[in-house]
Design a protein that fits this description.
By secondary structure, the protein is of the alpha/beta class. It contains 15 helices and 9 strands. It has helices at residues 2-12, 17-26, 29-47, 86-98, 116-130, 145-154, 168-174, 180-193, 210-223, 249-262, 272-277, 281-286, 300-303, 319-332, 345-354, and strands spanning 50-53, 55-60, 103-108, 135-139, 158-160, 196-203, 227-232, 292-293, 336-338. The chain has a 6-stranded parallel β-sheet. Strands 8-1-9 form a 3-stranded parallel β-sheet. Helix 5 (116-130) links the parallel strand 3 and strand 4 (135-139). The model has no long low-confidence stretch (mean pLDDT 96).
């Protein structure tokens, strides 16, 4: 039965929620390897052996939200807060550009100190400085539709906003200051505006079931985002979930691979969290269908303070160290670095159709 489901997912890119749940509940180690192999073949059919690199700038760890799992949640008084100025962010971009990056990911907590006007001016400066080579990805959380529109007009290309879990009750338990329908509405708005949109979820959340993970995949099939980030839940001791059991490498790799089969044209990062769980976690994700890596170019003076979870890797590494370490890791598993914009297959296909 499970072999049949794996074959069905590989050939048709479709499984029902019940089929996904059954697979997650019963898959064996041998079947995991079959799944990873099929996911890698699927990724190669769309993207070849390319792995796209993005330069990640974590520009503020100040956040208005109070998510129970997050180390920079508003209620955590022990974290040392910081904000990079627009000039400091531009300096990170300059360094990243010299290292070859042609996508910059500007990520922060939900910090409203960075107004729509300030962010628009910054995006415009970055695009003008590196036009036409560079793409800008934003990961700044929930804002108004008007702000999203303004940032897009200013030159932002992509927006990452993981939904974390598509089960409303679980979502709202973990996010006491937020509502799942707001999250869904933001993702829909971003797509309507024209962003390449990224969603995604955590694996191993307290109270999460195989049926919940199946719901995540069904949600993603319906949303059909350009990018999908999947990482394990890693407890942070300064949060209410600090004593909970974390997600596992094996379960997360299964979800990466299934996501590749069910949303085959998506871009899927091999997350830093997987590298935190296992020294070869990112490489294993690449072999299970992932095809993006995001080396950190946040200044080392503040990098350790952007601690969504504990024991995050690369805290002391300089950007040039991360850049070449990542390249060696990619080559070691027989894949190749692509330093271009790395747009999604779906986005490129739509651009070809319209023009």
């Amino acid at each position: 039965m499970r072999h049949t489901l794996l074959e069905k997912a590989y050939k048709t890119n479709e499984l029902t929620k019940a089929e996904i749940t059954f697979l997650l509940e019963t898959i064996t180690p041998e079947e995991r390897e079959i799944l990873y192999s099929k996911a890698l073949k699927t990724k190669q059919a769309y993207y070849g052996n390319k792995v796209y690199l993005r330069g990640l700038i974590e520009f503020s760890n100040i956040c208005r939200q109070d998510c129970l799992y997050c180390g920079i949640r508003a209620s955590n008084t022990k974290v040392k807060r910081y904000r990079l100025t627009p000039g400091e962010i531009l300096a990170c971009c300059d360094q990243g550009y010299e290292l070859g990056y042609r996508t910059f990911v500007l990520q922060s907590g939900e910090d409203l100190w960075y107004t729509e006007e300030m962010l628009s001016a910054l995006i415009h400066q970055i695009k003008r400085r590196y036009y036409p080579e560079v793409a800008i990805t934003l990961s700044i959380g929930e804002r108004s539709a008007e702000t999203y529109q303004s940032l897009f007009v200013s030159g932002a290309d992509r927006f990452l906003m993981r939904h974390e879990t598509a089960v409303p009750k679980l979502y709202e338990t973990l996010h006491p200051t937020m509502r799942f329908e707001n999250r869904r509405a933001c993702l829909n708005t971003l797509q309507e505006i024209g962003y390449q949109v990224g969603a995604g979820f955590m694996v191993g959340l307290p109270g999460q079931t195989p049926a919940d993970l199946a719901e995540d995949l069904c949600f993603l099939q319906e949303l059909h985002p350009d990018m999908i980030g999947i990482g394990p839940f890693i407890p942070h001791s300064q949060t209410p979930l600090g004593s909970e059991k974390g997600g596992t490498l094996e379960d997360t790799l299964v979800m990466v691979a299934l996501t590749r089969l069910l949303i085959p044209d998506s871009l899927i990062p091999a997350t830093t969290a997987l590298g935190t769980l296992h020294p070869l976690g990112r490489e294993l994700a690449l072999k299970a269908g992932a095809n993006v890596l995001m080396p950190i170019i946040t200044p080392t003076s503040v990098r350790k303070q952007y601690a969504l979870y504990e024991n995050k890797i690369c805290g002391d590494d300089h950007p040039e160290d991360c850049r070449y370490c990542i390249e060696r890791r990619i080559q070691a598993v027989g894949l190749e670095v692509d330093l271009g914009r790395g747009d999604s297959w779906r986005f490129i296909s739509k651009a070809d159709i319209f023009g």
